[in-house]
Amino acid sequence: MMRINCDIGERGPGNAGDIKLMEVIHIANLACGGHAGDARTIEVFRALAQKHGVELAAHLSYPDRANFGRTAMKLSGTALLAALDAQLELLPGVHRVKFHGALYNEACRDPELAAVLAAWLQQAGVREILAPDDAELTRCARARGIAVLREAFAERRYKYDRTGRRLSLVSRSQPDASLSVLAEAAAQAEEIILRQRVNIQQRGKDRPIWKTLAADTICIHSDSAIALELARALRRLIEPFRLARPGLCETAGLPIYGSQDLAVTPGGAMDQFSLRRGNLLLGNPPGAAALEMVSPPEIEILAPGSFAVTGARRPVSVLSGGKTRAVVHGSAQRVAAGDLVTFGEKEDGLRAYFCFRPGAGSAAGQAGKTVSGSAVNAWADARGRIRVLRGPEYNCLAEPELFFEEPWQTTRLMDRMGMRLDGKHRLGCGQVNMVSGPVADGTVQLSPAGPIILLRHRATTGGYPRIFNVISADIDLLAQYGPGREISFVEVNRAEARKAARQKESVLKSCMNDSRGGSNV
Description:
- By secondary structure, this protein is an alpha+beta fold.
- Helix content is about 25%, strand content about 30%.
């Protein structure tokens, strides 16, 4: 889920607007004395954060209160880091940092400064920073194992730096560097949140120029005249529904790659095909966050929009104005504030996905006949088998054909990391000891107790023989296997695996076309 962060505490402890903002935002970046702020302000805002469940970040800058930290300073590395140490000490126990003003902008484009700051962050015990996705600071921080919340700005205009090949903020010295009209700022934020893009076209031009802008959090400046109204509008956009009755579910998106060398798994939704399909039916970005549901909740709609349910099949109903209507699985359905979405008993599969697109005018397919799972999954094996390729230790198997001779059964020993199988045959393996090696989604390991299939949240290395690997097209199918279900395998070659992957992508392309044309396949 996208989170709202706010540069706050820069106008003292008693500012009414800042205090109201603390009821709406998710992350408060507290000024720590470099450009603004002091110990008393921090004390007040820490208390407000605890009261409203707001997370904290230390907002650190050049030590330049006279220029509000917006002017670059020529400091030695020692002097700069000493100033940052002093600021961080005002917010003990907080392990998230955001740099401010000139220091923020320079760290985005200067690799040497970014490297110095990343080393300092690691030494200071900082575990997470807020920074743009394409910043030098982001690259250096990730290399040191520091998590990055990719940041975008709601009320600042963007430009594209062709030399550095990255987006940057229009300088505050330029006219219209900030968006001061609520509708304009809200529109830019909506594009970032829902479509992961920003318009860099000059104001007044008719045709937009879009650039990709991936973000996990969107920033609002508390000193903006529209800050409070904008924060409230974004909160409605980000959280358009609530769980009226809890279930077994969590927010999931697509995997994030780039840190497996640091033992961080890409993760993401267990059934990424269903997640992408639901989003594409609504016109969302394919990786927009959705609810991944094993035991679905009741969902109360807080703002108008459209939703689609994909993955595991359950009866879905919408209670609206005292009347109940059934919902077609895998179709886009409009809902209004106050509607209640409920789910019946599971019919097939394990994990369902609730995808949502806010907006009263959001596109929605027209209700129609239910589309069978076999039609949606036409790229899968016709006999329902899971297709595998040979793994690095395949040759250790004494009788590899036994793996395919009889169906296996999934056991209760399964989670988001993997599933253990039980079967009639005991596979013999000549590999006694091995050095741990890299594993992937769908790796089939042979443990002393039998085969294990690694799933989306697996580790990055393993020490058991890797006898097979499920092909990429079929990994999502594994997410729909619950305990006690038969599972059969068939060996394929790489050409067949690539063909299945292409067929799967063609189904997703048809979903994209359906969202434009009103079908509900």
